[in-house]
Automatic annotation (TrEMBL):
Protein name in UniProt: GST N-terminal domain-containing protein
Taxonomy, superkingdom: Eukaryota
Alphabetized Pfam families for the sequence: GST_C_7, GST_N_2
Record organism: Oleoguttula mirabilis
InterPro entries in the cross-refs: Glutathione-S-Trfase_C_sf (IPR036282), Glutathione_S-Trfase_N (IPR004045), GST_UstS-like_C (IPR054416), Thioredoxin-like_sf (IPR036249)
Residue ranges constituting the GST N-terminal domain according to the UniProt record: 1-76
Length: 223
């Protein structure tokens, strides 16, 4: 999601090619894309990946952002502002904490049958139980939100470091904003009756203020 926001922000033309989960590894290998370094990901290959001018393929959001910055320096993504890694880390913590609520909703809402089977099988191995059981387990519900309390407070602190707002750096947009906006957009897609997105927006007024400021770069999100 952050990659799409970065492309929209820079005004770069692009075309989206959707791919089924089981096809990611063989297709990326055929393109000559290096796999994730051992210990850096749960999977050998992952989306997003892009092909830039000249035909080079790049995988992983931050690596893509760096390539886009070289391709078109302005408007800048301000990758070296000190916030990119901090926001990425806190976003991963929030997603990880809320995964028992949101992840079981992904297959029926977002995936075709081929990808749904792959997704369920691989996530069952990761969590040690089928997704439908995970959704009913003591790791979901209020316990998931308790697990998210610390990273959400950390996020609140980051957003209040520049009170002029609305972005992480104050009035200046950066890639860190797109990581955060992408997180909330994903959570919004998985929301049921306000239990994820709307609840998250109520944590602190800085969160919806930030999300609203980033919405214009979320308008193109499906092609």
């Amino acid at each position: 999601m952050s990659t799409r926001l970065a492309l929209n922000y820079k005004g770069l033309p692009y075309k989206t090619e959707w791919i089924e989960y089981p096809d990611i590894a063989p297709k990326f290998k055929s393109f000559g894309i290096p796999s994730h370094a051992p210990g850096t990901s749960n999977y050998e290959y992952s989306v997003p990946a892009i092909r830039i001018s000249g035909g080079s393929y790049i995988m992983e959001s931050l690596a893509i952002a760096k390539a886009l910055e070289e391709l078109q320096p302005e408007p800048s993504l301000h990758l070296d502002n000190g916030y990119t890694d901090r926001v990425q880390a806190v976003a991963q913590k929030i997603l990880g904490a809320l995964a028992p609520i949101g992840m079981p909703r992904i297959p029926p809402r977002l995936l075709n049958p081929t990808s749904e089977r792959y997704f369920r099988e691989t996530r069952e191995k990761r969590f040690g139980m089928p997704l439908q059981e995970l959704a009913k387990s003591d790791r979901a519900g209020e316990n998931a939100w308790k697990a998210a309390e610390a990273p959400l407070q950390e996020l609140k602190g980051i957003l209040h470091e520049h009170e002029d707002g609305p972005y992480v750096m104050g009035e200046r947009v950066s890639f860190a904003d797109f990581i955060l906006a992408g997180l909330w957009r994903f959570v919004q897609i998985l929301d049921e009756g306000g239990d994820l997105f709307e609840r998250g927006m109520k944590i602190d007024e800085s969160i919806p203020k930030h999300y609203e400021a980033c919405k214009k770069w979320l308008e193109r999100d499906d092609h």
